[in-house]
């Protein structure tokens, strides 16, 4: 059995506020965590985040902040009072940016878990080399993950295929949040490197992020329940 508790998060990737709230009404009681990304946040803003929190869900706000340290810190301070539990920043912003972000988060919301994004999974070796990074993506992920943890970050977003390597080099208490999850037998959509909920949990994921297998299910609550059962 895995040493880590693993929880389900829904990626709330829907075209508008009404369909999102309708989906969450169906899922109430069967789901604890919701990931709100740039698409919905930029369209509906903080009021939408509050609405989702008022329905009883915990929120992971996936804004992937990346800018000079002072600007990232100021952006985090602008989120004061917003009921979010997790927020993403890019670890490639470097040590100073991560430290500024961590200090700002502590001051703004001491319970906020900052999650570091390492190398976007859309990069292959050539694409990364073209940006001037000569390490292969898997090595660059490890490099940035170690840097992030050294700066005091307590959570990272990673592909399920990176979990095993990261668990070998990171302290146990670092949370790993993993999209690219598909229950056995479900449509992979365009995701290329996928893993089942049970296996991701077994090898050390702390939170799995699942979108379409729930959003497009005939019965989303049932789909979410089946995934949670698989995690137990
Ligand atoms: O629908 P699906 O389960 O593929 O959704 C996965 C979610 O995780 C989406 O919100 C997607 O943007 C996000 N994500 C991902 N792969 C990454 C990083 C984020 O699928 N490497």
Task: Tell me briefly what this model is.
The chain is α/β, with parallel strands linked by helices. Helices cover 45% and strands 17% of the residues.
SSE map:
Layout: E1 7-11, H1 17-27, E2 33-37, H2 38-54, E3 58-65, H3 69-78, E4 86-90, H4 94-108, E5 113-117, H5 125-130, H6 137-151, E6 155-157, H7 163-169, E7 175-178, H8 197-203, E8 207-210, H9 212-215, H10 220-231
Parallel strand pairs: 1-2, 1-8, 2-3, 3-4, 4-5, 5-6, 6-7, 7-8
Helix pairs in contact: 3-4, 8-10
The protein binds cytidine-5'-monophosphate.
What does this structure look like?
The protein is an alpha/beta fold and 232 residues long. 45% of the residues lie in helices and 17% in strands. It has an 8-stranded parallel barrel, surrounded by 5 helices. Strand 3 (58-65), helix 3 (69-78) and strand 4 (86-90) form a beta-alpha-beta unit. Helix 3 runs parallel beside helix 4 and helix 8 runs parallel beside helix 10. The protein is globular, with a radius of gyration of 17 Å. The chain starts with 6 loop residues before the first strand and ends with a helix. 37% of the residues are buried. Bound molecules: cytidine-5'-monophosphate (C5P). Cytidine-5'-monophosphate binds at residues 11, 13, 37, 121, 159, 179-180, 189, 191, 209-212.
């Amino acid at each position: 059995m895995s040493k880590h508790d693993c929880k389900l998060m829904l990626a709330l990737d829907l075209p508008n506020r009404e369909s999102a709230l309708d989906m969450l009404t169906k899922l109430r009681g069967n789901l604890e965590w919701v990931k709100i990304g740039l698409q919905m946040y930029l369209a509906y803003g903080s009021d939408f985040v509050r609405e989702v929190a008022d329905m009883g869900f915990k929120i992971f706000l996936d804004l992937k902040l990346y800018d000079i340290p002072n600007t990232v810190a100021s952006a985090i301070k602008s989120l004061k009072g917003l009921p979010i539990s997790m927020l993403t920043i890019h670890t490639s912003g470097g040590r100073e940016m991560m430290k500024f972000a961590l200090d700002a988060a502590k001051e703004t919301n001491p319970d906020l878990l900052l999650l570091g994004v390492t190398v976007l999974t859309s990069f292959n070796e050539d694409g990364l080399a073209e940006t001037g990074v000569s390490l292969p993506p898997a090595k660059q992920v490890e490099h940035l993950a170690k840097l992030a943890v050294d700066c005091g970050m307590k959570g990272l977003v990673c592909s399920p295929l990176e979990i095993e390597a990261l668990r070998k080099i990171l302290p146990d208490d670092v949370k790993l949040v993993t999209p690219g999850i598909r229950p056995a037998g479900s449509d992979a959509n365009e995701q290329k490197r996928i893993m089942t909920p049970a296996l991701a949990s077994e090898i050390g994921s702390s939170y799995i992020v699942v979108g379409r297998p729930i959003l497009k299910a005939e019965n989303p609550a049932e789909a979410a329940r089946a995934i949670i059962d698989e995690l137990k």
